[in-house]
Amino acid sequence: MIMKKFISAVLTLALIIGLMPGMTLTASASSGGGPLTVTEHRADGAISITYGANSTGFGELSGKCGANLTWTLDTSTGLLEISGTGPMDDWRGWNAFDDLRGRAPWYAHRASIKNARISEGVTTIGSDAFYRVENIITVDIPASVTRIGRAAFAYSGITNITIPSTVKTLTGSDLFRECRRLESVTIGVENFGWSQDNPYEVGLFCHRHDVTSLKSVTILGSVKTIPGGSFYANESLETVRIEEGVTTLGGAEFAGCTSLSSVTLPNSLTTIGEMAFFITPSLTSVTIPKNVTSIGMGAFRDERRIITLRGYTGSAAQTHANIADERRYGVRFEAITGDLPDVLPGGTTTPPAPPPPAQEIKVLVNGSTVTFDQPPIIENGRTLVPLRAIFEALGATVEWEQSTQTVTAVKDDITITLKIGDAFLTKNGERIALDVPAKIVGGRTLVPARAVAESFGADVQWDQATRTVTITE
Questions:
Q1: Among the four 184, 260, 349, 353, which has the fewest Cβ within 10 Å?
Q2: What is the DSSP string of 96-159?
């Protein structure tokens, strides 16, 4: 009955618009309530679009969403599951005549969707797939996905997302338009920034797209060059972590990010483009890796503050700071003492000696050795340990929320929450910055031992000679 009323309304609209000069609409549908085809007749030809090509109605809780894909929605849990192999359908939900051109088959139940699980084997996420799914929190993207369609998450309520390196194509710049709840992003795909071929295709997370709650960004090493303008004027962004493997900042990536206060750059970085951190008044110190040989004009310029570039004497960091200081750009240099740069005077290099076998890291809590099924690791000078073992050793109760990849630990009157990939933890509602975000290694979630232990009021000591972390309450 609902289908018949809908078709009747469409045919009436088609009749009315058909009286308009230069354009008519015709519609047809199967009597059994199947797909609806809408044809728009224009002076330059006819365009036909089929709504619900792989569905049989508009109020279903399951069906097809691709030639070999099916979907199921559990409204009691809010979980949308998409399974099968091959590409997902594309939809046209936010274009002109969007009620006619078609939306994803779960659109009618979008208020019930909290999380989406896409199974391994799905190769694309269709255009407008999660358009206006306003209560969704996360979408798990498997390694099999190679393309994400235009506006796939536009106007949705997604809060955190990881785009893996296996994704090769992002269609259009409207992927996250008006995602006002998006807080954390991890990016492994190369082409997510400003298109040089089309000046109207701007960075996915820049101010123009109103991604107004973004706090933390992690760029994976699979992204060799961060495109210029990627986060241009995103005034909510606070922390940026760029992982080993990235070599180039194209320019103006973070220009105008007025809340940006923490930036971690990898040793693999060689080039920082012009205006990369232009007008970032909250950014007061950055350590420039020794392999950086080129820093573009105005990369750290902001006359409203003084930023300290920490680097090696005679490095590009010092040269840039000296020039910027002469021009009163608000930049000064601080020399790093200790390790020598890889490149010696005259351009010769000293190949590093092979490192000795790594000694196992030990963790003691109140004098007792903590055992782990995944060994602790050291990353950027910080020791990361499996979260459940360290929390329980500290006497905290631990809960893990898979859908949001969030751990919550409670001890006495202290509650700590931590999301995978975030560069901060939350203690009783207050954010505390992390030098290294939590990450998954060997199927276990690893967290920085010092930050976690100190958040519970414990004292933390590191013995380099024995590679031992001692935690005392």
A1: 353
A2: TTHHHH---TTGGGGGG--EEEE-BTB-EE-TTTTTT-TT--EEE--TT--EE-TTTTTT----
**CA–CA distance, 357 with 454 (Å, rounded to integer):** 30
β-bridge partners, 69: 66, 84
Counting the structural domains of the chain, the total is 2
The structure tokens 């296996």 sit at: 166
CATH of the domain at 447: 3.30.457.10
Quick one: pLDDT at residue 239?
93
User: In the predicted model, is pLDDT for residue 3 greater than 50?
Assistant: no
Give 7-39 pLDDT, tens digit per residue. 454 444 444 444 344 444 444 444 334 444 444
Residue 404 located in a structural domain:
yes
Residue 94's pLDDT is: 53
Structure tokens at 247: 């070599």
Q: Which of 14, 35, 51 is the last residue of a domain?
A: 51
118 neighbors 96 (Cβ within 8 angstroms): no
Residue pLDDT, tens place only, 382-412: 788 887 788 888 888 888 777 777 888 888 8
At 369, give phi and psi (nearest 5°): -75, 130
- Distance (Å) of CA 51 to CA 57, 86, 90, 93, 257: 10, 20, 10, 10, 41
Q: Tell me the C-alpha distance between 275 and 328, whole Å.
A: 15
HSE (CB half, 13 Å, CA atoms) of 266? 21
Determine contact, residues 251/275, Cβ cutoff 8 Å.
yes
Q: How far apart are CA 141 and CA 123, in angstroms?
A: 10
Total-model pTM: 0.61
User: Rg for the chain (alpha carbons), in Å?
Assistant: 26
Cα–Cα distance for residue pair 235/207, rounded to 1 Å: 7
Domain range for 462 is 362-472
Residue 157 lies in a domain: no
442 domain residue, yes or no: yes
Percent of the chain with pLDDT over 70: 75
